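notes to self, project folder thing:

trying the whole complex as one job this time. last attempt i did each chain seperately and stitching them together was a nightmare. two parts in total, labels are on each line so i dont mix them up again. if this works i'll redo the older ones the same way
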Amino acid sequence: MSYLQIYKAGIASSVQDSGRVSKLSIGVAPSGAMDPTALLSGQHQLGHHHDEAAVEMAYADFAATLTDTHDVVVTGAPVRLSINQQPVTSKGVLRIEAGQKLEIKATNEGVYSYLHLSGGIMTTPQLDSRSTSPREAIGGLDGGFLKDGDNLPLSAPDRVVLAADPQLFIRKPKTVLELRVVSGFQFSDFADEAIRDLLTEEFTVTAKASRMGVTLNGAQLQSGITSLFSEATCYGAIQVPPDGNPIVLLNDRQTVGGYPKPGAVIRSDCVRLAQSRPGQRVRFALCSPDEADRINWLEQHYLETRLRDAH
Amino acid sequence: MNFELGPAGEAAMRLVFTEVPQPALTRALLEIASQAKQRFGPTLTDSVIGYTTLTLFFSPSTLERDRTEAWLREQAEAIALVDHQAPDYSTAEVVLPVLYHPSVAPDLEWLADDRSLGIDDVIALHSDATYFAYATGFAPGFCYLGTLPEALQTPRLDTPRATVPSGAVAIADAQTAVYPCESPGGWRLIGACPEPLFNLNNTPPSLLNVGATVRFEPISEAVFRALGGVIP
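result (full assembly):
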């Protein structure tokens, strides 16, 4: 066993893997990496399994040393890296010797970055996952966000390292990010004006953005729906509370809710939204469920091809 | 019974009955959820029951929309035909100890005043009723219980509290619930329950599950403390 000794954890760093499956019925959100593509890229570069966890950092401002020598790779939102205060490339696999100080700082792009460590993070899985759900205090290191002074247990770095560098980041948000929506839930009960505004107006990502969801600002959507029986939410569900500012629900969402929802943003676009900073302009566009399947399939296929070609 | 079917995002199907919530409907939804588990096996990752809804979640790219929709339609129609005669899942009654006291219940006095009732009347109304567990979710261990006696029904706070303590016994409209962990919340707080509602070491981890029957039992401050309750 070796340890990642954290000096500076930053604003919202946590242990995340691909998340929990089949726990919605007991009210536990899936959690997991906000950018699953970045997680996969790092796992791949270190020859890890797909259930291996990484340290997720929001607006990374992270400093740590290792008690043993490990190979590391940082994926997701671009960062500046230094070892013992010397800047190093942030692309590909780096060897960090025991005692060397690794510093990771966000650049001006994206939100979530991932620190992957050879050997893997050895916190105890809960409900079949190492992902942290801070609100429920499940998973991660003692169930919470990482703090300055934490020691994160790692497995001995004895695995084969693949020094491939597919650089699977970052689908740069265009000037206006298009969020494709599968309509559903209360779509047909929404006031016509609210649907028109949803599909024609431009919205902006606000600072109210977290692992639970992203609040948007733009047209105030008045659904005209006054009461609703609580029901299941889903990844990407667009929740419209009485103030009219839509919230796109993400990994740490509440599993059940009582606000009206005109539909859900498709998986690939949710990841782009998660990686968007406040001020990012977005637009919604309708998309059929079959179209969503095709888009997801194409992106998955593209990802697998990139990973295969990297060898 | 009238129902509608539709997507809940690209990986889930939603069945909604356009009826008022009632235990018979919830039992019917539980029955369909259990049939779905057999029908779809491991590609069905989750089924979540709401007051009038059942949402079936599938692993990415495994949802065969047309066939799933046809199957759900069949189930929903069959349930309608037998007129809610699904098996009764409520095996045992769960009794939750509650300290009803202003020191742990910031809205108790307000509610009594607002209804021109004594605090004892509010306690009696809340704890004499038997509740049915319509849905779980929002947070792990959170269970939506109904139906709250009409004399106690009250809307949510205009501005939700930033922090509601773990164990808070709360009411909103025709519902009551216990907050299983500290979280923000807009329901009115009328008591505190010292019993943990969610424990990962139990199977299932939630003390309250959909279909259960629940009652609240008033306890003294001494018993509350003895059961591990903390008075701030």
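what i see at first glance: Chain A touches chain B through 42 residues (CB under 8 Å).
need to look closer tmrw
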